[in-house]
Design goal:
The chain has 4 helices and 19 strands. It is mainly β and about 290 residues long.
Length: about 290
């Protein structure tokens, strides 16, 4: 594996390093995928000192958590426990440094390990075409939970598109485990959002689990009708989803600087064209596939 940057030598007690330190390539057998969980840190914590330069951080104890972060009351609808069991998991944070405007992103996408080391793949992106830009400094970051390890951790910068699709099924009155199913589909992985609250669809507020799978965004985009593609940043509702506990399906498209949101009644209504009905079924079928 090439382009390895940033060795975080957990076994020797180091926990924060620059993202710009090149290290030699080292291989010790085949790589296998490592499961990880997205952690919406801003819901319950603030960073005590935002780094102005690209930096990564591995937090392995509650003492280090208290050193780098300040805990505050929950500001998100996610009812998940904000505490971290450091006997099982480490918190990994990655910071892009200070940016002069909004529109910048840094994101960890996959993790692999062999018998010697762990490699966390990540990408960075800048403002997208059509995105409204404000001249205010920002500090992009991303946080995940990984299984506890004594192996050195390396970061590998990749090139990925930030474009993605979110699909979901919802029912406000339903209380079962399958009532709120939401997934983000990228071209590099699939995220399953956890404990989504009905009607609260700002997905950066939710924990997620990741499955590494390539090309899914490009494939599913072929199902999207032109009448939805042409909305480019608008929100549209078909029928009256969930008005009588019939639920509905959700679709969100992030493409360039535009975010398009669609709500579709589970019942076939007069404003749903044949193409929309076919698309609604494609969403439901895809959710079933991702659940299995």
């Amino acid at each position: 594996m090439k382009k390895l940057i940033l060795s975080l030598l957990i076994a020797f007690g180091f926990s924060a390093c620059s993202l710009n330190d090149d290290v030699a390539n080292d291989t010790c057998g085949d790589y296998v995928n490592v499961p990880f969980t997205g952690f919406p840190l801003s819901c319950n914590y603030t960073v005590k000192q935002l780094p102005t330069n690209p930096t990564a951080l591995v937090v392995s104890t509650q003492e280090k958590m208290d050193l780098y972060f300040t805990k505050h009351a929950n500001t998100c609808p996610n009812p998940s426990d904000p505490n971290i069991d450091f006997t099982k998991n480490y918190l990994v944070g990655i910071f892009a440094g200070e940016k002069s405007t909004n529109g910048y992103t840094i994101k960890m996408t996959s993790i692999v390990e062999n018998s010697c080391q762990i490699v966390i793949n990540f990408y960075e992106s800048g403002p997208q075409a059509g995105e409204a830009i404000t001249q205010t400094p920002t500090y992009p970051s991303d946080f995940i939970l990984i299984p506890k390890t004594v192996k050195p951790i390396y970061f590998n910068k990749t090139t990925e598109s930030p474009d993605n699709i979110i699909i979901g099924s919802f029912s406000a009155q339903c209380t079962g485990a399958d009532c709120q199913q939401f997934y983000q589909i990228n071209d590099f992985n699939i995220l399953k959002f956890l404990n989504v609250v009905s009607g609260s669809y700002e997905f950066g507020q939710y924990k997620y689990t990741a499955t590494i799978k390539r090309g899914e965004y490009t494939l599913f985009l072929k199902n999207v009708p032109n009448e939805i593609l042409n909305l480019k940043g608008q929100t549209k509702t078909y029928g009256t989803p969930d008005s009588a506990d019939q639920g509905g399906v959700y679709f969100e498209l992030h493409q360039g600087g535009f975010t398009t949101k669609i709500y579709i009644d589970n019942n076939d209504t007069a404003d749903q064209s044949a193409e929309i009905k076919v698309f609604k079924k494609a969403i439901k079928d895809k959710i079933i596939t991702l659940k299995n």
